[in-house]
Amino acid sequence: MARYTGPKSKIARKFGEAIFGADKVLSKKNYPPGQHGQNKRRKTSEYGTQLAEKQKAKYTYGVLERQFRNLFDKASRTKGITGVVLLQLLEARLDNVVYRLGIAPSRSAARQLVSHRHIVVDGKVVNIPSFSVKPGQIVGVREKSKSLENITDALAGFNHSKYPWIEWDETSKSGKLLHLPEREDIPENIKEQLIVELYSKQ
């Protein structure tokens, strides 16, 4: 499936946030990309602000437009606050859970581990990054992949206690999704209500 493979620093500068993780460029060029990046820009319209928030969420979680729309439709049919449910569905994606567990340093790296069959869910290999992990399920590293250098490097010194909805077992190199995260436990700087407002107009 097609994914954004262009310069990530340009996207991070567009939103003024390190949405792909630590980004040295942002500290040097904290203005939008392009020849007019440093110029004062016109005030963004309400629609433009809502659209930018949706784009930021898509880039942050590495989700394409159709997938994102499907997740929003599912969230809108689910009991609860639509915007929060949308973020919970994004957080429950297998590639994101692998990232949150510290098995990979980024979501794109996590997606690659899943696609290359290094990850198991309840003991069975799952190679679909968009797989939705359910509370109670255990996500871990495939036995023959536990010694991979990129996995051991990512796990070294990782603080697993910062995500209270996940329980990590160092011995088995696996973690259990205890429950879907509450909004205050999701660290991403996303104004989900703007996304809800955007889709409500369509």
UniProtKB/TrEMBL annotation:
Region Disordered: start-end pairs: 27-49
Highest taxon of the lineage: Bacteria
CDD domains xrefs: S4 (cd00165)
Pfam families associated with the record: Ribosomal_S4, S4
Keywords, in A-Z order: Ribonucleoprotein, Ribosomal protein, RNA-binding, rRNA-binding
SMART domains associated with the record: Ribosomal_S4, S4
Any single GO BP term: translation
GO molecular function: rRNA binding; structural constituent of ribosome
All copies of domain RNA-binding S4, residue ranges: 92-156
UniProt function note: One of the primary rRNA binding proteins, it binds directly to 16S rRNA where it nucleates assembly of the body of the 30S subunit.
Subunit description: Part of the 30S ribosomal subunit. Contacts protein S5. The interaction surface between S4 and S5 is involved in control of translational fidelity.
Protein name: Small ribosomal subunit protein uS4
